Amino acid sequence: MKFEHIVQINDLTKPEIPPLTRSQVWEGLVLRARRPDKFLVGVEDYEILEQTPGYLKRCVQLPGVEVIDEVRFFAEYQVDYSILPSETVPASSLVMDIEEPEPGALFVRFSYHAGSIESAGDSMPYDEYLKQAYVMTDIDTVQIIRDLASTGAF
Questions:
Q1: Do the beta carbons of residue 101 and residue 95 sit within 8 Å?
Q2: Which residue from 87, 107, 85 is spatially nearest to 25, judged by alpha carbons?
Q3: Ramachandran sector of residue 20 (left: φ over 0; alpha: ψ -120 to 50; beta: rest)
Q4: What is the pLDDT of residues 73-111, one digit of tens each?
Q5: Separation between Cα atoms, residue 153 and residue 151, nearest integer Å
Q6: Which of 114, 150, 146, 120 is nearest to 133 (CA)?
Q7: Among 83, 72, 92, 67, which Cα is nearest to 29's?
Q8: 105-114 and 45-52 strand pairing
Q9: How far is CA 90 from each of CA 74, 82, 86, 132, rounded to the nearest angstrom?
């Protein structure tokens, strides 16, 4: 399954909504990688296994599953997650790109690539539910970043 969507950060037509800077959005996306418990529902525990300035390997405990992923940081531009395959988790990826089509008009493009979870003969639209969950999580991420920025966290 390939899926992408865009979340608007700053709406230049609504000056009453405090705009975020590229740096604030970046710091928030980095925090999501370093502190998944603040952004993702169901995180029971996590551990940073390896870390360099542009790289992070972590183990995230979710209900009934352990996910090991690698995260690469491209300063103020992109965060790239690669989930390492295991017996219970297929390989997948998430790329978050900060886009600025005009000065101050910030967006984050979330691009997912994962195996389909729908099985032959099953009429349930699992992939559609998963896409909706991704969108809601990503909208929540932006709101958390906005909330943290309003407190001066970054």
A1: no
A2: 107
A3: beta
A4: 999 999 999 999 888 888 999 999 999 999 999 999 999
A5: 6
A6: 114
A7: 72
A8: unpaired
A9: 25, 11, 6, 19
Tokens of 36: 């998944």
Q: Is 108 in a helix, a strand, or coil?
A: strand
- Structural domains in the chain, CATH included, are 2-34+77-150 (3.30.530.20)
Comparing CA positions, the residue from 23, 140, 36 lying closest to residue 81 is 36
Name the DSSP letter for residue 40: S
Determine the Cα–Cα distance for residues 101 and 96; give it in Å rounded to an integer: 16
Q: Are 93 and 82 in contact (CB under 8 A)?
A: yes
Mean pLDDT value across the chain: 91
Q: What is the DSSP string of 61-106?
A: EETTEEEEEEEEEETTTEEEEEEPP-SSS--EEEEEEEEEEETTEE
Q: Which residue has the tokens 């979340």?
A: 7
The two most distant CA atoms of the chain are separated, in Å, by 51
pLDDT on residue 122: 54
- Token pair 């551990």 is found at 47
What's at 38, amino acid-wise?
A: K
User: In whole angstroms, what is the distance from residue 132 CA to residue 151 CA?
Assistant: 29
